[in-house]
Predict the 3D structure of the following.
Amino acid sequence: MNRTEFNQFCATFPAAEHVVQWGNSDVWKAGGKLFAVCGWADGDDAFTFKAGEIAFEVLQTRPGVRPAPYLASRGMKWLQQFAEDGLTDEELRNSITLSYQMVTAGLSKKKRAALGIPEPGSIG
């Protein structure tokens, strides 16, 4: 997946908002909550997403995947794919989808409804 494909994919989520910040990173939020980032690692695209506890432990052992700089160092379960030998495009899309679901599940039911965000677990 490249940066353009990443941005196109993230734009498909209901109420997804795109901003450019943190040194020209493409930052994606829903309901004001971060769910995915594309920045750089050693000059290459790096994709950052929230992970569940088991995925966080398992996926970080894969080549090209590591705990996300800054976010994981603060005790949060975020991963970064920083090299091509990490996740397949399908695995990365699935991980971003799960990140979106985890983040939006934390929003109030009222806020999800106002933003048109489906109930938790109904995307995918």
About this structure: The chain is about 30% helix and 30% strand. Residues 12 and 97 are 10 Å apart (CA to CA). Helices lie at 3-10, 53-59, 89-105, 109-115. The two ends are 18 Å apart (CA to CA).
